[in-house]
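Changelog-adjacent note: as of this version, every example in the card shows the full chain rather than a window. The one below runs 761 residues end to end.
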Amino acid sequence: MADQSTTANLELEGRELYWGRPFNKTEIFFRQLVAVVKLAVRSLLFLTAVAGVGVLAYHIFLALKNQLPLNDPLFWQGRYFDYFLWSVVLDMYLFYNLGLDAKRSYNVIRKSFKPQAAGKAKLKKVDMSDSFSLEALRVLDKAYLKAWRSNKAFNLLFIFSRLLSAKIAAVIFGRLGLSVKDIKIYNKKFLENLPRGGTVLDQKVHQVLSRAYDLAYRESRPKVEVTDLLQAVSELQPEIQEILYEFKITPETINNVVKWANIQKKLSSRYKHLRAKAYFKPKGTMDRAMTAMATPMLDSFSEDYTQLARAGYLPLCVARDQELSEIFNIIEGGKNSVVLVGLPGVGKSNIVEGIANMMVTEDVPKILRDKRFVSLSIPHLVAGASRPNQLEERLMIIFKEISRAGNIVLHIDDVHNLVGVTSVGSENVDLSEILAKFLIQKGVITIATTNPADYRHYLEGHPLNEVLQQVIIAEPEDNQAIQMIESKAGFLEGKNQIFFSYDALAKAVKLSRRYIPDHYLPDKAFKILEEVAVQVRQSKGKNHAVTGEDVAGVISAHTHIPLTEVTQAESEKLLNLEARIHQRMVDQAEAVNFVASALRRARAELRDTKRPIANFLFLGPTGVGKTELAKTVAQVYFGAEEKMVRLDMSEYQLKDSVNRLLGSQTTGQGGAVRGEGGVLTEAIRKQPFTLLLLDELEKAHPDILNIFLQVMDDGRLTDAIGRTVDFSNCIIIATANAGTQFIQDRVKAGESLEEIKNKLL
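Full-length structure tokens:
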């Protein structure tokens, strides 16, 4: 076979990467032979070392038995001691040999956090195969040999076949609730259909190798692992994607589960990794240059994140590469200080913890290396400050210590809490102005956090806003959120001795985003998983799997919205909904059919999920059953007449009635905004899966009608406090007497109801 090993595939960090490990039977046999010989020689050397220690121990035993002192020259001249010395020499050769192998094996290129210079004349060539793990290389060799024995082209299907035999594959597909054996059966069918005609190298193999290397580079892993190969072949081979689609697995799903497996592996080896990387990291307040100064006052009111990270107490930060890069770019660009602005629960604190972990392992820009990352606690700073100017004195001493130490990166959580804070009985400038002045003069690197509302209210137009560069921390997308809770799922699994399926994590993210609008990902999904884990352990016992249905059941209990699979009893109720309604209500078959069909579509998710389940306008004279139908539906499907929200629109004829529906807010002392929800918004927030009856709609003020027009079109409404209320799980029924005379006249004239409806609407 022609050697295609020198094909260039990838350029990273000023290096040209190529695959230099040949794929052919002779080379693979030779590599296997060398590996066996090395293992045999090293095993022999190791046994010799063990025997040497045993001989030395026996020699000491004989010397003690014969009462021969260890400092006697005869002790050091015995043949047993000579054998031990030879074993030491062989041990030294063993360690030297292992060191040579380690030197030949290179780690994946690390991110430099620097923009690449354009137009470089020459790139340094690097063999990417040196950065593949031993297990990954064995998978590739075995895949090639399988293709050679089959006399078929060496393509990605053979690599995928060998990957399915790896131990990690059982874990990955087990998370998806699948058996590797079933996937192997489908893959075997594709392999059998490949034409024979010699073992030539498919060009996609090089693409997969480059992609796997790139994945390891992006995740900052030292070696290209089997999981990287699995993700790469899933992305690049249509036949493999077709196999996975048979089991309802998308490339995004594989990507997320592979990341989960990598996170678990990283967590398991984290302590060892941090101890090794942080060995030369100063353990106290001193830097490596021995130039830092002690900071006793700062230490009294702060927490040292670098110490916590060294001990492995801080959680991993995943799926926030873009935000971390933005923070590092701002700091390297000379701005020095940033403020992370994000809603509660989106992960601002986790990003700060991630920076601390990266500082410990020195995986940060040069300006952040060899520094302490210290979090100043505002509550601790303020507590106990009772005499005038005491707060200002504390803060000034802390700032002097930071400036003198020279190795401090400062973190301030909820920095808006400093605005307006002064000592008791003091009319001096507040603490936030002191901080702003200090940052301007000293340029100390500071990472602060706040939320959007407090940023607008306290920091916009404030001197701090001139110093702190804003970095928006948005609520993560679904895939990001899944990866974030994957990094924390292991803690819940260990604590409750249960096992999370991938479907459980995916549903926790998807359903909490849709049905719990008052909180934000990933925090709200993680809290749901905490509750589900406890519930499954209590109901099913330990060592059980948490499924998507378990998650749906918990969210359903919180929101009173049916989210689990349709049960037999509910199925019968839905199928016979019209008959059940007609047991209480006579006639109005058309309206009954429309309402029943809408409920069935909603339960089967066959509708626009961003709008209400259905919007109905019941027109007709008083007494024909408009309101009665709404009551009947509430009783038959929702459980009771009281389960519907009824608004008598004759009570909302004035313009200021809008405040009654949506709520109102007032500004109290100190600019604090207080508010309360409205009649409509609070009712739907507490009972989102319901029937909303708007009785006598025509009597409402036009501004009220405009509000309901928005609800019927968008399925949501913002109350006076700024909370978004979801109407997408409501059936909205409006009744009106408008056109009553016209309808009665047309009926008397003998026109059909369809003709009357067309003319009326």
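Structural remarks: The first helix runs from residue 25 to 65.
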